């Protein structure tokens, strides 16, 4: 029999149980996903004329419908289509598009015969006459951005726009979508469902952008559905069409335009980039629906004990969020806030009922953050949006602090007000897998702060916690949530605070939290960059490499750029080897070993034991780092370290302010420019020009020391500051004791030059002569073979009577499903096999086998044979044989590349000899297209 594992039991009072709007939301979601009725569809008809008033153009039609085109800026315009010819129905008003007054553009209007042309220095909008359709070109009037393939229609309370799709056009956006971020051929609900499962949307946004060079935001509160097929079909549940368009030379340009109109991402307080901890500490409250006897969770002040533990464990963490909803409430909040602040923690509140007391909580008690829970704002759309705005006002109207609000059910414009997170998810490998593209993809809708609970709110394990925390430490905001899970669910796992684990897990958690604290000036600068440009700190690969055909699609959805310098490739399965890391063109240094790889290409077989996150630094990177500390302000930044990967010319502009107040909005901030000149290869001089810190803010140091770490394959000939030579030191101990000087350590990450230049408040130049740029190893490994074109040719047995054990589950990309041979009735004997058509011919060089992931053990494959062939009737000899371990971990089998279109796995025995069955969660492969 196939064993079953009980699913996690949600806590009573859980958000989704607390929702009284469930039926309404379900109905709304169904309305979004179901196809629109085809009958009685109406459209505008033919154009009868165009009039203008300044930069606003009104189009009349034969049906009585009208369109209004507003040119807000040379690269930004609004198209508003009204079926009844009036423009009074504007539900979004100024809620979403808050900045539209950019000044007069002086657009031109030309009658070109079959169309009217509205032109600006950036774009040309064609208003086709018969029937009314629109098309947007660049100013050359020949480079197409988008074109309607047929007139926009409205019927049954839904309005749909249809666009042509270019042969290689890719699409991104739609908010915090829980899954892959490249959307071509996908249909995406732009709707609130509060399901928080893969391919749903935790914070939808009616925005997307295209590699053609444009983005669009539908100016509406209504749910919708976007189908990025051919043609592209874009629908919202309203009888009106209203959209803002943003043209740009790059995806970054489009994000800049979109956030110019809808608001730039807010700049969080710097402590908001530290780890947050959410829990219910008032479990003695009779109304609380969890375990009333939890130790150190009887009253709100018990949180101070947890804070004490964190500091005793030398574990960086910045804020606590005691739950004040679901029967938790809080007691003695002012004293709790005061005692936490003494330990370097800020305090926020997690509300399920509203913010009636926020004036006192912020202004008197000193709370500085809010989490708007779905039991209150779960209706989404304008209800959620207004709830977040109320939280923002509650913080900023009652203190000089910055907004710091967490929410689900965001919408377009939420980036200016809140962190969005993925909702109630579980601590599983599978959930981690889709969290990586979800959080990176959120940035493609301008959401700089997107997160998910570390290891989820349900389930979890020491391994999944460690792996999840590792990569989330490279995102701007992250939080761990506990309080409803079982006490001591497994060995070494007391609850979801990172310091309450046994070894080695606690030390690994500390390692990554400490690294994030050291990287705080870099990550804070990236967030300031986001608030200036709309380009997020956590970046899907396509943002940095838009012209790389691999980076444009979901082949790279399992990795991301943390700012402009770090490539992060999370490990999301129970393995110590990471395959399929894509390194774009350029040189990349392994952060831990110093080994250099030259892209573009795929890196397979990367050794990633539990304490190692695959992490690479881009050539030329200049990364500012603080001294080690457990929270912002624990120590003065008396020395600032710049970690540099010299190669060619590069620069970095460090941003600093007081980190807490809103004074930066009136200019209270500083910048320090650092420029590096280095050889692109071989040996030569490296020059680091450090500018003076310009600008001022409260607490800015008058001077400070500077330290530099520069990667080099050789010791320098000399090191000097200006014309003054620095002394060469003979040991690391001597270097640590010195005020100025340099030391070359050949064993440190394949060669590192350490330099101290002393304390200064003025500009200076550091020169190291005869440094050698490391020679990189080319990566040209094979790539994961996408499963979209795969199909099962044959499986000798499937269990469908008692469960869905279909063979197709083994190649569906979902580890939660599996193929299982028949066990009801008379189970057929071993061996069993599955044959797969890869959809095209490949030189296949590895296969990865993932056993069932539902906790069951029967059917695990023992000994096996693998075949690759061009024929399903003549398989030849196996490319690999062996035995898989009797564990739930994935196993990669590598072999000499063999060309073929078909893949065959034969299970000769069952691991542990438990029975005559075979089961398999996922079968994946790597290779190169073959002639």
Automatic annotation (TrEMBL):
Q: Which PROSITE patterns match?
A: FA58C_3, TAT
- Report whether Hydrolase shows up as a keyword of the record: yes
Q: Which residues form the F5/8 type C domain?
A: 780-926
| Keywords, ordered alphabetically | Glycosidase, Hydrolase, Signal
CDD domains referenced in this protein's UniProt entry, alphabetically: GH31_CPE1046, GH31_N
Checking Pfam families in the record gives: DUF5110, F5_F8_type_C, Gal_mutarotas_2, Glyco_hydro_31_2nd, Glyco_hydro_31_3rd
Q: Which domain of life is it from?
A: Bacteria
- Where does the UniProt annotation place the signal sequence? 1-41
Describe the family membership recorded for this protein in Swiss-Prot or TrEMBL: Belongs to the glycosyl hydrolase 31 family.
Q: In its UniProt entry, what is this protein called?
A: Discoidin domain-containing protein
Naturally occurring in which organism (per UniProt): Streptomyces tanashiensis
The uppermost taxa in this organism's lineage are: Bacteria, Bacillati, Actinomycetota, Actinomycetes, Kitasatosporales
């Amino acid at each position: 029999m196939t064993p079953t594992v009980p699913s996690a039991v949600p806590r009573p009072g859980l958000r989704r149980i607390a929702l009284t709007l469930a039926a309404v939301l379900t109905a709304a979601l169904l309305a979004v996903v179901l196809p629109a009725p085809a009958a009685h569809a109406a459209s505008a008809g033919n154009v009868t004329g165009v009039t203008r008033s300044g930069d606003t153009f009104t189009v009349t039609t034969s049906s009585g419908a009208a369109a209004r085109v507003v040119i807000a800026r040379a690269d930004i315009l609004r198209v508003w289509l009204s079926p009844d010819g009036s423009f009074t129905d504007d539900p979004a008003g100024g809620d979403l598009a808050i900045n539209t007054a950019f000044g007069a553009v002086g657009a031109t209007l030309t009658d070109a015969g079959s169309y009217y042309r509205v032109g600006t220095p950036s774009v040309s909008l064609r208003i086709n006459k018969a029937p009314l359709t629109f098309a947007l070109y660049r100013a050359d009037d020949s480079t197409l951005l988008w074109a309607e393939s047929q007139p926009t229609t409205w019927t049954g309370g839904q309005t749909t726009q249809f666009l042509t799709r270019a042969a290689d056009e890719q699409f991104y956006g739609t908010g915090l979508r829980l899954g892959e971020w490249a959307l071509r051929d996908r249909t995406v609900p732009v709707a609130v469902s509060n399901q928080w499962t893969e391919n749903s949307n935790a914070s939808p946004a009616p925005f997307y952008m295209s590699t053609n060079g444009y983005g669009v935001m539908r100016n509406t509160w209504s749910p919708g559905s976007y189908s990025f097929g051919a043609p592209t079909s874009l629908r919202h549940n309203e009888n009106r069409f209203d959209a803002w368009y943003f043209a740009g030379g790059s995806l970054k340009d489009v994000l800049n335009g979109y956030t110019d109109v809808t608001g730039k991402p807010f700049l969080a307080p710097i402590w908001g980039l530290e780890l947050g901890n959410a829990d219910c500490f008032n479990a003695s409250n009779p109304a609380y629906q969890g375990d009333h006897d939890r130790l150190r969770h009887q009253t709100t002040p018990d949180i101070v004990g947890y804070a004490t533990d964190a500091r005793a464990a030398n574990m960086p963490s910045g804020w606590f969020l005691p739950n004040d909803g679901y029967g938790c409430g809080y007691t003695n909040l002012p004293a709790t806030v005061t005692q936490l602040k003494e330990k370097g923690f800020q305090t926020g509140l997690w509300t399920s009922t509203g913010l009636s007391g926020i004036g006192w909580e912020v202004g008197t008690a000193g709370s500085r953050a809010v989490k708007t829970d779905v039991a209150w704002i779960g209706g989404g759309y304008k209800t959620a949006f207004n709830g977040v705005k109320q939280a923002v006002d509650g913080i900023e109207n009652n203190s000089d602090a910055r907004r710091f609000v967490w929410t689900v059910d965001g919408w377009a414009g939420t980036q200016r007000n809140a962190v969005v997170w993925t909702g109630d998810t579980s601590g599983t490998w599978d959930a981690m897998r889709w969290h990586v593209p979800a959080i990176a993809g959120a940035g493609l809708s301008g959401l700089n702060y997107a997160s998910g609970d570390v290891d989820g709110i349900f389930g979890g394990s020491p391994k999944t916690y460690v792996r999840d925390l590792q990569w989330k430490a490279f995102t701007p905001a992250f939080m761990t949530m506990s309080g409803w899970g079982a006490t001591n669910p497994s060995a070494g796992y007391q609850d979801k605070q990172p310091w309450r684990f046994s070894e080695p897990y606690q030390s690994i958690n500390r390692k990554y939290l400490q690294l994030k604290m050291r990287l705080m000036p870099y990550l804070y600068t990236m967030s300031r960059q986001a608030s200036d440009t709309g380009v997020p700190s956590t970046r899907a690969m396509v943002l940095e490499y838009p012209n790389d055909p691999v980076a444009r699609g979901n082949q790279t959805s399992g990795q991301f750029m943390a700012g402009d310098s770090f490539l992060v490739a999370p490990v999301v399965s129970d393995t110590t080897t990471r395959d399929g890391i894509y390194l774009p063109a350029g040189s990349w240094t392994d952060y831990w070993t110093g080994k250099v790889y030259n892209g573009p290409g795929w890196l397979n077989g990367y050794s990633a034991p539990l304490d190692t996150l695959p992490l690479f630094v881009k050539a030329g990177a200049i990364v500012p780092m603080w001294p080690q500390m457990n929270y912002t302000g624990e120590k003065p930044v008396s020395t600032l370290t710049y970690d540099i990967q010299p190669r060619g010319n590069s620069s970095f502009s460090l941003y600093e302010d007081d980190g807490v107040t809103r004074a930066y909005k009136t200019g209270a901030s500083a910048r320090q420019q650092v420029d590096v000149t280095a050889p692109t290869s071989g040996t030569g001089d490296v020059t680091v020009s450090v500018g003076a810190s310009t600008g001022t803010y409260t607490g800015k140091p008058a001077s400070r020391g500077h330290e530099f770490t520069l990667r080099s394959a050789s010791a320098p000939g000399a090191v000097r500051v200006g014309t003054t030579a620095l002394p060469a030191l003979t040991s690391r101990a001597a270097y640590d004791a010195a005020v100025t000087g340099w030391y070359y350590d050949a064993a440190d990450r394949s060669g590192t030059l350490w330099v101290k230049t002393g304390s200064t408040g003025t500009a200076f130049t550091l020169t190291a002569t005869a440094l050698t740029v490391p020679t990189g190893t080319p990566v040209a490994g094979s790539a994961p073979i996408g499963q979209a074109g795969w199909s099962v040719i044959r499986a000798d047995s499937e269990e469908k009577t008692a469960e869905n054990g279909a063979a197709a589950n083994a190649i569906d990309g979902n580890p939660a499903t599996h193929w299982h041979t028949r066990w009801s009735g008379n189970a057929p004997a071993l061996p069993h096999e599955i044959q797969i058509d890869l959809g095209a011919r490949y030189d296949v060089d590895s296969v990865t086998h993932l056993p069932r992931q539902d906790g069951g053990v029967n059917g695990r494959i023992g000994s096996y044979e693998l075949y690759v062939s061009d024929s399903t009737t003549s398989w030849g000899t196996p490319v690999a044989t062996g035995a898989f371990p009797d564990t739930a971990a994935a196993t990669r089998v590598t072999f000499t590349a063999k060309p073929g279109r078909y893949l065959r796995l034969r299970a000769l025995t069952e691991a542990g000899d438990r029975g005559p069955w075979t089961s398999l969660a996922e079968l994946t492969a790597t290779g190169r297209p073959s002639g």
